């Protein structure tokens, strides 16, 4: 392993972890009383999917690369918009319904993890096509994502907000913005 390859994989891990960091900030905004065990669960889920999707992509190979690349941005946008929209709706309700939305609920956590990891699937496909060994990049991507997610939740829970329903609205807007960013990047790339 050369230094240049290590730096490349590290930068790739950092780039792929931005969405996970933003999702973690949203989780910290919504659950200010987050415990270390909960934060570890969220970070581990995000890191697991972020590291696992390149392996899946690598195994799928070049045959399906174009098919997945043509819809990955729509899948990510749809998942993030759905979860973000639900957060905004819950945040608008002022009658104690905030307790109904739980970012630590397994189905929500898995949805967030998948939505933020779809780009990593395409990266794995390109690794498979280029015959790049997958183990080291996956370890770097997973480690960087775990650290970024833990820092994101710490940052999110320390942002002051007057009321928790306002935090839900902010978190929902952040998730929808991430989805729009993914969509815009891919649509812009297709146009050029």
From TrEMBL:
It holds the Pfam family Mntp. It comes from the Bacteria. One of its GO terms (molecular function) is manganese ion transmembrane transporter activity. It is a multi-pass membrane protein. The chain crosses the membrane at residues 6-29, 41-61, 67-85, 106-128, 134-156, 168-189. The keyword Signal does not apply. Its main location: membrane. The keyword Ion transport applies. Probably functions as a manganese efflux pump. Belongs to the MntP (TC 9.B.29) family. This is Putative manganese efflux pump MntP. It comes from Draconibacterium sediminis. The gene is mntP.
